[in-house]
Design goal:
With 318 residues, the chain is α/β, with parallel strands linked by helices. The protein folds into two domains: 91 residues, Winged helix-like DNA-binding domain superfamily/Winged helix DNA-binding domain (Arc Repressor Mutant, subunit A, Orthogonal Bundle), CATH 1.10.10; 187 residues, Vaccinia Virus protein VP39 (Rossmann fold), CATH 3.40.50. It is built from 13 helices and ten strands. Helix 3 crosses helix 6. The two termini are 32 Å apart. The N terminus is likely disordered.
């Protein structure tokens, strides 16, 4: 943790660290998304040597941390873990520079970068729509579906399957729920889902991004997001949206990949990340205001070829 600013040397050190436009721009980008050096060079339009030098200084001063993904280091801020003084110092600097031309240009390039990430995932699902159910079962088995269903215990609930794909899980939920809403942003997947759910009067399919759900506030009793978060450039936004649409007492259920080191698998599947460590996922859900958060590894099925999975649940208390 950054040293308290009550010590004069610590205050000078913090001010010196933030007294550079490039480091401020880096902090603003990494506050929003976890990014690699090449991506930061692209957004900032600076050489790798310059970006790496500033990242090292920020890392040495505990403003950012890095983790390995394949052959790449991914960086993020730890601003939420800072003491009150350095956090307030950063907030003040960010507010003062928010309208600068450099910050605005960075946001435009970041939006383009994230759009390209989403395009990779959309291209994968467009090509895989016809074979997705078979591929998913080969990679992950089927027991996770039962685990997710048991975590919800639908009864007479309004349930949302977020990233519903071809609606294989929607059809399993439909007989037990009052209403099931499937949301996906892939037209190819939704076309397959419409064919599969034809005749199910309590099923509704909606096209939309999981980072901006086409659902009303506090309108859902249970939200499930199965094998989707690893495809999203910013899982935090999707989790915040889940918290928004859940009713008080509602439940979120997440199934996804445990952190692994198979970068070739990630690229082949069009995923944005190498999965999640349970403590990080728990923190992600808690940060969105959800409570009673649990996360546990699921036993891999003998024939499953993909990475192991976890099941996480969390409740909306108010």
């Amino acid at each position: 943790m950054v040293q308290s600013a009550s010590h004069p040397d610590a205050l000078v050190d913090m001010l010196t660290c933030l007294a550079d436009a490039t480091r401020l721009r880096l902090l603003r980008l990494l506050e929003q998304h976890e990014l690699g050096v090449a991506e930061l060079c692209d957004v900032l339009q600076m050489p790798q040597s310059t970006v790496s030098r500033h990242l090292k200084l920020l890392g040495d001063r505990n403003w950012v941390v890095a983790r390995r993904q394949g052959t790449t280091n991914l960086y993020r801020t730890i601003l939420d873990e800072l003491a009150a003084a350095p956090r307030q110092l950063w907030i003040t600097a960010r507010e003062e520079l928010a309208g600068s031309a450099a910050f605005k240009q960075d946001q435009l390039r970041l939006a383009r970068l994230l759009s390209e990430r989403r395009t990779d995932a959309q291209a994968f699902f467009a090509n895989a729509a016809d074979q997705w159910d078979k591929l998913r079962e080969e990679l992950y088995g089927r027991s996770f579906v039962l685990a997710a269903a048991m975590a919800v215990s639908p009864r007479d609930l309004i349930v949302a399957d977020l990233g519903c794909g071809t609606a294989s899980f929607v059809t399993e939920l439909a007989p037990h729920a009052r209403r099931v809403i499937g949301v996906d942003n892939s037209p190819a997947m939704l076309q397959a889902a419409a064919a599969r759910t034809e005749g199910l009067s309590n099923v509704e399919l909606r096209q939309g991004d999981l980072e901006q759900l086409p659902l009303e506030d506090r309108s859902i009793d249970a939200a499930l997001i199965l094998l989707v978060l690893t495809y999203l450039p910013d899982p935090r936004k999707a989790v915040a949206e889940i918290a928004r649409v859940l009713r008080p007492g509602g439940r979120a259920v997440v199934v996804d990949l445990l952190r692994h080191d198979r970068d070739d698998f990630r690229r082949q599947m069009g995923q944005s990340s190498l999965g999640f460590d349970p403590p990080d996922l728990e923190k992600l859900l808690s940060a969105a205001g959800l409570t009673h958060v649990t996360c546990r590894a699921l036993p891999p099925e003998p024939q499953a070829k993909g990475p192991a999975l976890f099941l996480a649940t969390a409740d909306k208390s108010n």
